[in-house]
Structures are given as C-alpha cells and as structure tokens.
Amino acid sequence: MQSNQLPVFFEQLTQRLTDAPSEVRRLFHGRGRCFSGLEQITCDWVNGQLIVALFKEGDARFVEELKRGLLALATSELWRSTTGRSIVIQYRYKEGAPSEVLIGELESNPVVIESGIKYQLNIGRNQNFGLFLDMRYGRDWVREHAQNKNVLNLFAYTCGFSVAAVEGGADKVVNVDMSRSSLSKGRENHKLNGHNLNSVSFLGYDIFRSWGKIRKLGPYDLIIIDPPSFQKGSFALTKDYKRILRRLPELLTSDGRVLACVNSPQVSCNFLIDSMREEAPSLHFVQRIDNPPEFKDIDSEASLKVMEFAY
C-alpha cells in the first residue's frame, strides 16, 4: 500500500460519509483493486463506528499518515454531523487481527440493521464480524423467494441466510455448520428478530458425514451453498464443492432452486456452471445475482459469485 494514495481514500470516505448510511455498509473497498495503491484497505460503517481494516502492511509512513487523516476526520464538522462515535483500525495482516481504537470506545457487539433485519456482530476479536456485507443482495434474494419454502442452509455460519428466509415467510429452515458456536450466534440473530425457532433447526454437523440426517429433514425447495474457499482439514473448494453438487437431486423438490456461492478469485462463474452441469445436469443456470455497488471489482470474475440454478 502506498501512503501517497491516501488522499484518494479520504476523498472517497468523505463522499460516502456526506450521506452516511443508516444501516451497516462498506464505505471503501480497496480490495476490488479499483484504487491503485489502496488494494489492501477497507472501511465499514457500523452504527456510527468507522472500522478500517488493513490486510497488508504498507510503506513505513502509511499507517502514520492514515492515523493522522482519521484523527483529522474526527474533528471535522462532517464527523459531527454523522454522529460518529468511534474510529478503529484492525490489523488483519497481524496474528490475531488486533484492533486499535483511535477515537471513542469500540462497541464490540453491536446490533446492526441490514435491509431492515437485525444482526449482532462481533468486532475486534475475530477476522470476520459475523456478517459478510458483500452478500447483502444474496440475503435479499433469499427473503424474496422463501415464502412457504423448506430451506436448507449449508455452511450456515451465523445463519444470515436463515434469518432472511424466515423474514421472507419460509415454513422451515435447516442450518448446517461444523461450528456450533457460529450456530449459537445464528440462533441469537433469529431471536433478535422475534422469530419462532420451532421452524428453525441448527445442526452442528460435518456436512460430508451427515447426508442421511440432512436428507431426512427434506426435501427442500431452496438450498443455499456458501462454503469457505478453504478450511484446513474440512473443505477444499475445487474438490469438495462438486461433492455437494452431486447430492442436490436427492435433496431438492421437483421444482427446487439452488443458490450456489463462491468467493474465491481463483475460480470464475464457469467453475460453478460447469460443475453443476457435470454433477447435477438436471439443474440449469438461471442468473448471477449482482453484488452491491460498494463492492465494485476491477474483475467481476474475481469477486463474490452468487449463482441461481433451478430445474
């Protein structure tokens, strides 16, 4: 990262804060590589907190000048008008992803709003907040298509898709994830929105060892697949994704839909389209769901891919 490009960062940040969003949002997305010299910095707006993340160490002056600029922002009329409360830098390239509070106090467990739905985040202790902001349109799509549906949410994490599905009127949602702690956070996200948990299941299973249990709770009208790109010992994208796709015909209803997601720059949309054709040829590609505009990428194939398939 280059300190001489920081004026561009602050120019973009000022533009976005001039009309500060009322919901949680990405304000600056350097990782889309649209801003030369700023490819490893992002900035999110979280209930009046400015969370700046650095993914790689910059030149010797970069952090010093970044801090100076953020402190100057905190004394500006613009900052006062946004009712900003704190500014935090998270060093994602360091072990443990430590955070440094520059201004105010970090609210580490804020309840945020996205598309009118509540989610609780966990900031400052983990690399991820608990809600991937680039998936907003995917969650919106699920809510719009969940009415009276039986939904399977694979690699559920903190159950963002599940919450959106219940908001959309799903009859039943089955969440599957190896991390029971993540599923517990998902349960709390449902409670935040006043959902009846009798219609929601939380299964702390290894998906590849639990197809029988998952199948018994089906068939499913909608299946969501949103795996990590790589998880040591449990998931390797190019090999294991196909193992999931070949199971779809035995899990889906005759008019079922699939939302297949992948967020790796190493594979293109064709990876999912071709893999589906090989493993579940009865399903056809319908569309790619757009990513939110704040996540613009110089190469759309390198960014998040959210793909709809149907019989």
Automatic annotation (TrEMBL):
Limits of the S-adenosylmethionine-dependent methyltransferase domain: 25-309
Single Gene Ontology MF annotation: methyltransferase activity
Keyword Transmembrane helix: no
Alphabetic keyword roster: Methyltransferase, rRNA processing, S-adenosyl-L-methionine, Transferase
Keyword Glycoprotein attributed: no
InterPro entries: SAM-dep_methyl-trfase (IPR019614), SAM-dependent_MTases_sf (IPR029063)
One Gene Ontology term from the biological process aspect of the record: methylation
Name of this chain's protein: Methyltransferase
Organism: Vibrio variabilis
Phylogenetic placement of the source organism: Bacteria, Pseudomonadati, Pseudomonadota, Gammaproteobacteria, Vibrionales
